[in-house]
Specification:
The protein is mostly beta strands. The protein has a domain of 36 residues. The chain has no helices and three strands.
């Protein structure tokens, strides 16, 4: 995904959800966000359970050029009714 903006000075909000489409298991999901140079790195690790001993999968999202950002560090559960 490439997202570019010119002459835009307002906030851009990202809601991140790394789960697979039908994965409703809430056990062992860890998101770690850190900055390196001009990169914001979001690392998602999914463990098999709450013991956090066996990694099931790992994914990364890297944002380049976001020099000024605010980490809200807020989690909210959303329940979808089908």
């Amino acid at each position: 995904m490439i997202y570019e903006v010119d002459s835009y000075s307002e906030y851009v909000y990202l809601d991140l959800d790394f789960r697979e489409m039908f994965d409703t298991n809430d056990q062992g999901r860890i998101i770690y966000i850190y900055k390196k140079d001009d990169l914001i790195i979001i690392e998602y690790t999914k463990f098999r359970d709450h013991s956090l001993s066996v990694v099931d999968k790992k994914a990364f999202l890297v944002i380049k050029g976001a020099n000024d950002y605010e980490l809200l560090n807020k989690w909210s559960q959303e329940i979808l009714s089908l």
